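Is this the right way to post structure tokens for a design question? Let me know if I should format differently. Anyway, here goes:
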């Protein structure tokens, strides 16, 4: 087993990381960048496992079979912290906790590694709190920040990190991984890799979850049903409902479970009134649940808008006769009909409208209004 095995198509980045492991003196801060599906977090975890690997030969570290490698990849190594946020943005308190953790000496390994997923979700004020620790870290600490692109991180942070740029793997590489690792058939793996646009996590979910495939198919077909403003409003409502139902149910279940656990820890029955001195704890739990629910809902809606974009991407491919493969090749006939009934500049305008909606759903406000405005712009031109 090799810790780099789940990073298909990243040979250049893996070579650079292997060299840093073999030299035994890695940079104190790293910035892993790449589009969704490129494996930023997986690359950081594999690098952390290789740094902590117990194999004596530096050239062979990252074996994937020693205790250190196994626990790092499983997320249970005491000296490797994988940090992510379920809120819309990281809070300053979250970053201060990380800085405190960074000061601790490693307990069992050569390095204390802190991996920060979605570092682009730090506001400027929050990032400035992290800056000093990145500038002057303890000699035993290695920071690994993950973001879609270098531009998503403040230049003051970016300039102090060694950059690792990742690319989206090929469809064939993702399909081979799904067959080898997850036991999917070649047909299942190829379909999932194609419609997910080589996003390994999304591909795996689509291959395994029929409901997820149905939701995506309904989303991609929405433009075929929009002919009027009323059609657009109905389609927007359906898109929001499809995208948020699962996320809302999951968030509600987790919030209820956390509230029940807190009651149990405080010795309160399910129907007992909350004592005044304990209300702040329940209030904080409720606020966290609201932030988490908003993040989950927005993530789901953003993913649906990405799927919707693939419809117009395919239409544009046909209109420009570029010869590129269709993402949604199973919809080839309706895609050809739609392409023949419109012009490429109209298709580009619709792609831009979806991109603008993806930005706006992250701002305060009612996402349904944003999606309705977008859906109205997707009507066929007269």
């Amino acid at each position: 087993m090799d810790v780099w095995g789940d990073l298909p198509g990243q040979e250049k980045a893996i070579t650079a990381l292997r060299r840093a492991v073999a030299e035994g003196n890695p940079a104190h801060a790293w910035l892993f960048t790449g589009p969704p599906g490129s494996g930023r977090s997986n690359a950081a975890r594999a690098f952390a496992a290789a740094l902590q690997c117990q194999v004596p030969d530096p050239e062979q570290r990252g074996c994937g079979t020693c205790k250190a490698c196994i626990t790092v990849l499983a997320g249970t190594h005491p000296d490797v912290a994988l940090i992510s946020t379920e809120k819309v943005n990281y809070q300053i308190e979250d970053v201060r906790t990380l800085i405190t953790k960074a000061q601790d000496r490693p307990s069992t390994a050569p390095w204390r590694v802190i991996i920060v997923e979605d570092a682009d979700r730090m506001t400027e004020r929050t990032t400035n709190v992290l800056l000093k620790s990145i500038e002057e870290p303890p000699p035993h600490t290695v920071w690994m920040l993950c973001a879609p692109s270098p531009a998503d991180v403040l230049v003051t942070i970016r300039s102090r990190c060694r950059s690792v740029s990742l690319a989206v793997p090929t469809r064939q590489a993702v399909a081979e991984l799904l067959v080898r690792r997850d036991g999917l058939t070649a047909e299942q793996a190829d379909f999932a890799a194609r419609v997910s646009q080589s996003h390994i996590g999304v591909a795996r979910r689509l291959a395994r979850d029929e409901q997820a495939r149905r939701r995506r198919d309904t989303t991609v077909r929405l433009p075929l049903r929009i002919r009027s403003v009323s059609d657009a409003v109905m389609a927007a409502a359906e898109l929001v409902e499809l995208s948020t139902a699962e996320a809302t149910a999951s968030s509600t279940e987790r919030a209820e479970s956390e509230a029940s656990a807190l009651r149990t820890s405080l010795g309160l029955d399910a129907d007992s009134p909350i004592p005044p001195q304990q209300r702040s704890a329940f209030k904080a739990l409720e606020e966290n649940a609201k932030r988490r629910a908003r993040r989950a809902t927005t993530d789901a809606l953003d993913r649906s808008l990405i799927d919707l974009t693939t419809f117009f991407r395919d239409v544009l491919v046909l209109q420009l006769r570029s010869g590129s493969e269709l993402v949604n090749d199973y919809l080839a006939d309706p895609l050809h009909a739609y392409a023949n009934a419109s012009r490429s500049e109209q298709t580009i305008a619709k792609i831009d409208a979806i991109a603008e909606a993806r930005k706006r759903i992250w701002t305060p406000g009612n996402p349904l209004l944003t999606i309705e405005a977008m859906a109205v712009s997707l009507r066929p031109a007269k």
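Format looks fine. Someone answered above. Worth noting: The two ends are 58 Å apart (CA to CA). Residues 353 and 374 are 6 Å apart (CA to CA).
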